């Protein structure tokens, strides 16, 4: 199922598939992506072939041109227990723009609007989490614009991160996008 932002730039989300393997590997090597996620191995060869109920991996496109990636998970059900012991009815988002040339054009904002709208479309979801690197102040401000609030500093693997959370009640509903 595709979700579309109605704007001058039409962003569609589609499921990531094994056909995206080379693209995602390429994006993983881009300096701005490495800077935001230096120690993660996404295991694309395996993960793109899996479709657990607790996860969506999506490619963002404009006019069929891939521009970014979004992962939405249910952190309580996720099998690696990355988030540890966590309550039900939450979602966690990973998001990035693939090519540096596509940064600063509003694509990330629209992608995040789509992701949050998707998360909160489920009436049981009470909040959404993100875990940017502690030193990435630019992305902290990006999340704060969507109503995310700092929760705690936390180490995930080898990375010092800040956990941010936006509760359904605090989400800026003016950023909602009508989903088909």
From TrEMBL:
Alphabetically ordered keywords of this record: Antibiotic resistance, Transferase
Annotated GO molecular function terms are: N-acyltransferase activity
Residue ranges of domain N-acetyltransferase in the record: 11-169
Q: Which Pfam families match?
A: Acetyltransf_8
Query: Which InterPro entries does the UniProt record give?
Result: Acyl_CoA_acyltransferase, GNAT_dom
Q: Which residues form a coiled coil?
A: none
Tell me, which GO biological process terms does this entry list? response to antibiotic
PROSITE patterns for this protein: GNAT (PS51186)
Q: Which Gene3D superfamilies match?
A: 3.40.630.30
Q: Does the keyword Transferase apply?
A: yes
Q: What is this protein called?
A: Acetyltransferase
């Amino acid at each position: 199922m595709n979700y579309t932002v109605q704007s001058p730039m039409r962003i569609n989300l589609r499921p990531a598939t094994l056909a995206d393997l080379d693209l995602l590997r390429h994006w993983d090597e881009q300096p701005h992506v490495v800077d935001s996620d230096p120690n993660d191995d996404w295991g694309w060869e395996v993960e793109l072939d899996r479709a657990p109920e607790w996860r969506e991996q999506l490619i963002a496109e404009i006019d069929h041109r891939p521009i970014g990636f979004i992962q939405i998970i249910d952190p309580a059900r996720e099998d690696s227990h990355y988030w540890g012991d966590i309550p039900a009815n939450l979602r966690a988002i990973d998001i990035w723009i693939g090519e540096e040339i596509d940064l600063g054009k509003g694509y990330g904002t629209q992608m995040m609007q789509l992701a949050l709208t998707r998360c909160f479309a489920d009436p049981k979801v009470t909040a959404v989490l993100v875990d940017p690197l502690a030193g990435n102040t630019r992305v902290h401000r990006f999340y704060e614009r969507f109503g995310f609030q700092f929760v705690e500093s936390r180490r995930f693997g080898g990375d010092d991160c800040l956990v941010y959370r936006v509760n359904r009640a605090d989400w800026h509903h003016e950023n909602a996008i009508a989903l088909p």
